[in-house]
Design a protein that fits this description.
Number of strands: 0
Strand content: under 5%
Low-confidence stretches: none
Shape: globular
Number of helices: 4
Distance between the termini: 19 Å
Mean pLDDT: 75
Structural class: mainly alpha
């Protein structure tokens, strides 16, 4: 099982829990998922997170396109943080 698969499994487990706003669970999400608090378990999101993991290992410039509110900034931050963490 790859690190990405383990992260995605962690996301699926955390997605089933609920917590009130401002709960200290947010740092735990970042620490456990490795994707800066991006939480979800649908197939499309898993695909995006695998792409995040792939492009973060490379040195290429990445252009994120999408409508307002789709999480482009979260994905950009996840890519950046995974590059810095290496």
């Amino acid at each position: 099982m790859t690190e990405t698969d383990m992260n995605l499994n962690g996301i699926a487990e955390l997605d089933d829990t609920t917590s009130p706003a401002g709960d200290p669970l947010e740092p735990c999400l970042k620490a456990q998922t490795g994707f800066d608090g991006i939480v979800g378990k649908c197939a499309d999101l898993r695909h995006v997170l695998r792409l995040v993991d792939t492009v973060a290992r490379g040195g290429a410039t990445v252009l994120l396109l999408g409508e307002t509110g789709t999480g482009k900034e979260l994905v950009a931050r996840a890519i950046h943080n995974r590059r810095v963490g290496d």
